[in-house]
Amino acid sequence: MKKGLHPEYVEATASCACGETFKTRSTKPILKTEICSKCHPFFTGQQKMIDTEGRVERFIRRYGLEDRYKAPGKKAKPAAE
I need a surface site. Which of 21, 39, 49, 63 has the fewest CB within 10 A? Predict the structure, then answer.
């Protein structure tokens, strides 16, 4: 293998938006996440609203195509100026 090609694999501290932190290994020393196993509904068993948006929705919003792809019966959101 070539020398100097691969990044260093170091111990990293991962922190979640809920405040939970844990140690892991990564090529970056600090990792930040929005959700972890301590606050994810699958692991906690509690119903919780998780604000996520898919790639398609982001694309539609980014290029102003809400009118073309809006769901029947819903009004499109006004574009941010």
Answer: 49
**Amino acid identity, position 55:** R
Residues 46-73: tens digit of each pLDDT: 766 655 667 778 888 888 888 887 766 6
Domains within the chain, CATH numbers bracketed: 10-69 (4.10.80.400)
Residue recorded with tokens 């982001």 = 58
Q: Kindly tell me the sign of the dihedral angle through the C-alpha atoms of 21, 26, 30, 31.
A: negative
What pTM was estimated for this model as a whole?
Answer: 0.47
Tell me how far CA of residue 48 lies from CA of 21, 44, 74, in angstroms: 20, 10, 24
